[in-house]
Write a structure and sequence with these properties.
The protein is mainly alpha-helical and about 80 residues long. It contains four helices and two strands; from the N terminus they run H-H-E-E-H-H. It has one domain. The chain is about 45% helix and about 5% strand. The protein has a two-stranded antiparallel ribbon with strand order 1-2. A hairpin with a 2-residue loop joins strand 1 and strand 2. Helix 1 packs across helix 2.
Length: about 80
């Protein structure tokens, strides 16, 4: 029985493909922003087709928010503060 199962991507792989931090991917998931994800137990995975559609939409000028949110917060802003 072929159900069309494809390899799912990890959040690190998605972050690399989109040129953003893993923190950005996690933040977007927390706020229920694209890309959509699949949760299997405690594992979070992403369908390659979902990531492809997100890139195509951004390429057409539809959604530039993914890269913009990364620039606004900076790659190292993950909520940490310097101790002093």
């Amino acid at each position: 029985m072929d159900v069309g199962i494809e390899a799912l991507l990890t959040e690190r792989e998605v972050a690399r493909l989109l040129s953003v931090s893993v923190g950005t991917i996690r933040r977007r998931r927390l706020f229920r922003e694209p890309p959509e994800f699949v949760k299997i137990g405690s594992s979070v995975r992403y369908k390659p087709d979902t990531i492809k559609r997100l890139i195509e939409t951004a390429t057409r000028g539809g959604t530039q928010r993914l890269a913009a949110s990364e620039k606004r917060r900076g790659p190292h802003s993950g909520g940490r503060r310097n101790a002093g």
